[in-house]
Amino acid sequence: MADQDAQTPVVVDPPALSVLRWDESPDGPAVVLLDQTRLPAEETELVCADVPSLVRAIRTLAVRGAPLLGIAGGYGVALAAVRGEDVAQAADLLERARPTAVNLGYGARRVAREYRAAVESGAGQEVAAAVALAEARALHEEDAAASGRMAQYGLDLLAELLPGGGGHRLLTHCNTGALVSGGAGTAFAVALRAHREGSLRQLWVDETRPLLQGARLTAYEAGRNGMPYSLLTDNAAGSLFAAGEVDAVLIGADRIAADGSVANKVGSYPLAVLAKYHHVPFLVVAPTTTVDLETMDGTSIVVEQRSATEVTEITPKPGVPAGGGGGGMAVAPPGAKAYNPAFDITPPELVTAIITEEGVISPVTGVGLAELCARSSQVTIS
Ligand SMILES: CSC[C@H]1O[C@H](OP(=O)(O)O)[C@H](O)[C@@H]1O
Fold this sequence. Notes:
Layout: E1 20-25, E2 28-34, E3 45-48, H1 51-59, H2 66-82, H3 87-95, H4 102-120, H5 125-161, E4 168-172, H6 187-196, E5 200-206, H7 213-224, E6 229-232, H8 237-242, E7 248-251, E8 255-257, E9 262-265, H9 268-277, E10 282-285, E11 291-292, H10 309-312, E12 313-314, E13 329-330, E14 343-346, E15 353-356, E16 359-361, H11 366-375
Parallel strand pairs: 4-5, 4-7, 5-6, 7-10, 8-11, 10-15
Antiparallel strand pairs: 1-2, 2-3, 8-9, 9-14, 12-13, 15-16
């Protein structure tokens, strides 16, 4: 039942996306973002010249995705430092903007720590601010390198798990490409590497209700890269497994607890159950900055609850997010209540392997995670 309309896999090299950059304009420093709420219809930039505007961009998912949130958190603290503002307060505001992705707090706290160390060592404000900015850039570059290493580890694991020829049929959920990363992404980067190496037969893209990161963003990235993809409603995934059309599931993560529990976009847990039932590998791809060894298990992970209007409305046009500041188009009766967790938790026993930039662990055990993180060059922040 492979998609009859599957695009012929043609490897292209699209222009790199400028997802997030530091900008020093005559008007002053700013974090400049590709506004993801307007994709795929419009590629527009959002200039965040202060921390409150960056916090709003994070809350509205103009910038999103765990690794990129970490990078944004780091640059946000550097922005406060360069503006001579309270760096500790900026780190706290940024970390609290979205609670589940551990990377956001990690990036903010890491840059704040370097700034504080510089001040405590006697550096003046300007030098300390430069140190903060340098640390934010280092975090950005480390994430780009991590993305490339995860892609290769993932490609090698797919070859091991799926030895037959003919290419892999991979299912992804949400968006885990360049739009969440300093590089090509996490789970999507594995699928993209497979495509470039000629081993991607089909990419199944879950639309990912309610904010449609799959339909709007992953389809956009897959199309840009000439990948053979088909979009599906989240509800259709089960029938794909039943038809034997899925060789492996590739997802990202927002927080991985010490026991290997994985917080990821809502809808990940049902895919893990389907994968288990149909004996399909369920692979999590995430940098070690997403592993939180201080959170013991999935029950301790805070799952972000978002507004009901994201479920009861749909966005009528780019830039008017469903559930945003009004303007969405109602699909439910006025006043309808809605359950809208942004993430769910997959227990370790449903995870085939976790692929990080430091290697792969399977079966997923706390010891394996701690060992991987010990190898990581990522500094740990208490
Ligand atoms: C690999 S990080 C991408 C991760 O972030 C997404 O969440 P959101 O779009 O709400 O930031 C989703 O959980 C993805 O797996």
